[in-house]
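Retry 2 of 3 after timeout on previous attempt. Resubmitting structure tokens to design endpoint.
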């Protein structure tokens, strides 16, 4: 498993411009909230799909950087309850709008494809990278 520094270095190479970074600061949380809110409505016995996604993501997050992993757990729990509180259509809209923000950032500002086109792990790294921008734990 790559270190968090190596993951952030690779991810940062696709996120150099201020415009792209700004669109990601809004888009990634919108995607997370929308996705968690949608998956919270998919019941799988005594749990739902959002709980499974959060649990599996947390295993990865805690393994690569436990402090950011704990922060991401708190955010994910908050997004879980917020996502349940807002209507399904709003979750869908947040999810779609968040992805539009991502692609605007890459197409208009960065002129590079998103990092996850090359490495799907970056779908998990992006939220940590955004969180680290607000609560710096790892030097980028």
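Retry 2 succeeded. Sequence:
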């Amino acid at each position: 498993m790559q270190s968090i520094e190596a993951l952030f270095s690779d991810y940062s190479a696709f996120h150099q411009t201020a415009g792209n970074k700004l669109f990601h600061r809004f888009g990634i949380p919108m995607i997370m909230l929308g996705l968690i809110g949608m998956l919270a409505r998919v019941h799988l016995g005594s749990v739902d799909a959002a709980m499974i996604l959060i649990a599996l993501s947390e295993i990865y997050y805690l393994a690569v950087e436990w402090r950011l992993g704990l922060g991401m757990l708190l955010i994910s729990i908050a997004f879980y309850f917020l996502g349940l509180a807002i209507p399904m259509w709003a979750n869908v809209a947040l999810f779609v709008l968040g992805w539009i923000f991502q692609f605007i950032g890459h197409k208009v500002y960065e002129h590079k494809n998103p990092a996850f086109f090359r490495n799907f792990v970056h779908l998990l790294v992006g939220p940590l990278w955004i969180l680290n921008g607000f609560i710096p734990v790892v030097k980028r």
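Attempt log closed. Residues 88-110 form the longest helix (23 residues).
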